[in-house]
Design brief:
By secondary structure, this protein is of the alpha/beta class. Helix content is 40%, strand content 23%. The chain has two domains: 162 residues, Periplasmic binding protein-like II (D-Maltodextrin-Binding Protein, domain 2, 3-Layer(aba) Sandwich); 109 residues, D-Maltodextrin-Binding Protein, domain 2, CATH 3.40.190. The strands form three sheets. It has a six-stranded mixed beta sheet with strand order 2-1-3-13-4-14, with helices on both faces.
Length: 302
């Protein structure tokens, strides 16, 4: 059997795991989880890093690695609570939700593309007349999806903090009631910028990294009018009852990966990760604020 065929079969198994019962965790097996709407693509991104880690964890009894996909955050929370998943890579808001709802523990900060922290930029067309968040009353705002940190949770937190009423819209052609902000999900960063550029929605919100990477033709016509504070870009989390020896060894292997040439390809495939960093006191304060904000968004909007 070819290597590629084995990968495809493994990815299919990961995909099927989205809709079938999950067997009990097995001793000696490290399970890496991911919330995914594209299991096959994500499997190829996760597997090299999992293999790298497992090869270095024999001294704590780990002999095999497996990947388990969840269709949404609720399913991943269940996997963590039941011990079906040991380790999850997540955005910072998603990680805080897993801490609050599933007893997970944030273990390391994940730096991607050399960026460990980012912030949300709200933007609109230059000719829109929108210059502040207060100008969004009666307007429409595009987010990415309900799990995005920079393109949902953080911008929603900003508006909730200002007591701005929000209502979900049926489509880009739906309009918000006067005095409220209408929001909808565009599913991708490109769709957000495209919808704003074409005037389908009044404003959009996503990370400063995505704002900087917009097509030049869009950048000429779009302008940022508000920015949030910085938040960690991504985190590695483990289930709360994971064997401390396994959790500690996993932390050490990941923390040292950036200094190991053998990890170079695995890191790059792992969503463009450049290194894993310890969570210091300043990062923890930022995460605590984000955790409270995520809970507030869930209370108000979900």
């Amino acid at each position: 059997m070819s290597r590629r065929l084995r990968q495809l079969l493994a990815a299919l198994a990961a995909s099927l795991a989205l809709c079938v019962p999950v067997a009990a965790a097995e001793p000696g097996v490290l399970v890496l989880g991911r919330i995914s709407d594209d299991p096959a693509a994500h499997y190829d991104q996760l597997k090299p890093m999992l293999d790298y880690v497992v090869e270095r964890m024999a001294d704590v009894g780990i002999r095999e690695g497996r990947i388990l996909m969840a269709r949404d955050a609720r399913q991943m929370e269940s996997y963590l609570r039941r011990g079906r998943v040991d380790w999850v890579t997540e955005t910072s808001a998603g990680a805080m939700a897993l801490e609050a709802r599933a007893g997970a523990n944030a273990m390391l900060l994940t730096e991607r593309g050399g960026v460990g922290a980012y912030h949300t930029v709200f933007f609109a067309r230059r000719d829109s007349g929108i210059e502040s968040l207060g100008d969004l009353h009666g307007r429409s705002l595009a987010f990415q999806n309900p799990s995005s940190t920079s393109a949902y949770y953080v911008p929603a937190m900003e508006m909730i903090a200002l007591d701005m009423p929000m209502e979900i819209l049926l489509s880009p052609f739906d309009r918000a009631a006067e005095g409220s902000v209408g929001y909808l999900f565009a599913r991708s960063e490109f769709n957000i910028s495209s919808w704003v550029h074409k005037g389908l929605v009044d404003a959009g919100a996503f990370s400063n990294v995505d704002f900087q990477n917009m097509p030049e033709s869009y950048r000429r016509d779009l302008v940022g009018f508000h920015a949030s504070v910085d938040y960690p870009r991504a985190l590695e989390v483990v289930r709360g009852d994971l064997d401390p020896a396994v959790a500690g060894r996993l932390r050490d292997v990941l923390a040292n990966a950036a200094n190991d040439p053998a990890a170079s390809e695995a890191l790059q495939r792992f969503f463009g990760t450049t290194r894993f960093l310890p969570i210091d006191a300043g990062t923890r304060r930022s995460l605590d604020a984000l955790r409270a904000g995520v809970a507030r968004v869930a209370e108000v909007l979900e």
